[in-house]
Design brief:
Diaminopimelate Epimerase, Chain A, domain 1; six-stranded parallel beta sheet; six-stranded mixed beta sheet; 15 helices; binds guanosine-5'-monophosphate; binds manganese (II) ion
Length: 396
Amino acid sequence: MEPIKNITTAETSNSQTEFTPLSNRRGVGGEALLSPSDITLWHDLLAASRHIVITCHRGPDGDAIGSTTALASWLRRRLPEAVIHIVAPTIFPDFLKWVPGAEDILIYEGHEDEVRPIVEAADLIILCDHGELKRMWTLGDVVRDHPTPRIMIDHHLDPEPGIADLVISHPDLSSTCEVLLRIILQLEDGLVSGVAANPLPLLTHSEAVSLYTGMMTDTGAFTYASTRPEIFELISILLRYGIDKDKIYRNVFFTYSPNRMKLMGYMLYVKLDVWKKAHTSLMTLTNAERRRFGALNGDTEGLVNLPLQILGMKLSIFLREDTEHPCIRVSLRSVDDFPCNEMAAEFFGGGGHKNAAGGEVWGTMDEAVALVKKAVQKYMTLLKSPLPSSPKGEGN
Ligand code: 5GP
Ligand code: MN
């Protein structure tokens, strides 16, 4: 895929709206997420920190890149004396390179010797968009072994016990970016309602762009996990910073290379297997096929969603050989109530959300396909029943 350059000028230089103060935001966007003791702990942990490392899961997605870049920028404005790094366990796709601040993200894998000392020098580590250290692969081991306080900001189910000193975990929310924006609103309200008004703007334009990106990508551009009205209240706040949401959409979704487009055609025409009775589809992609289409890692993004456009489809499964490691990556997507996260946890050593989850199989593609068949069999009763038609009058 061609590197994406110069497509975001309008997204990073909107100085007119950058410092617009917002009034009357109390109560907007939902209930407060932090308890009074959480707020005290937050301030205590940050006040004691001079070297902060912000991290996310391996294979960072829009929510991971959006939340880490927004948080780093926001903290840098509030703690100008602190040194703040973002460290991602592995590379992230080209279609996220334009996100403001993404250019400063350090990649751990392949740069271990340079990046490990930075993580080991941290006096505070903030984990974004995951609740298990194993989702950071080898960087997770470094973090686990480093005795420093941690904060976790996330929206995945069942965070690992003891993963952080302050656990801000809200699986009911759309994205880590939504959690972060609500934390910022709550913390800033505390500041501005005090005697001295907060002299800093709530957000910069760039931070609003990052936060919108994560909320948009984790909801498939607001096509799932996004029916709560608070989400749109929060987005209306972001829009008031002058972000161009249509451009953000194009930056993320309209970035295919010709090869990616051809790969998509190939996957649908040749590789799509539909199991009608189970309302389930399976696609597999080997590294040999990747090479044939010159497809990079980011080029497979979103392929798993396509089969759900088939009428009546409940579950889409996508297996792809990992480019770096001898394992098969598993992606699951569903509609309505089918619990992808439960299937991912039970069969693929992973997890995620009800409608979007993933995991791995450390074996061959044939072994992974056999495991998929077992998993579908196990969930057959749930999968076999037809989708309820028009439950609330939305139509089919
Ligand atoms: P994807 O299919 O895009 O790789 O992942 C979809 C979602 O599933 C991610 O946003 C993440 O929440 C979850 N997920 C993917 N892989 C894993 C994994 O190995 N472990 C866990 N716990 N969750 C995963
Ligand atoms: Mn997320």
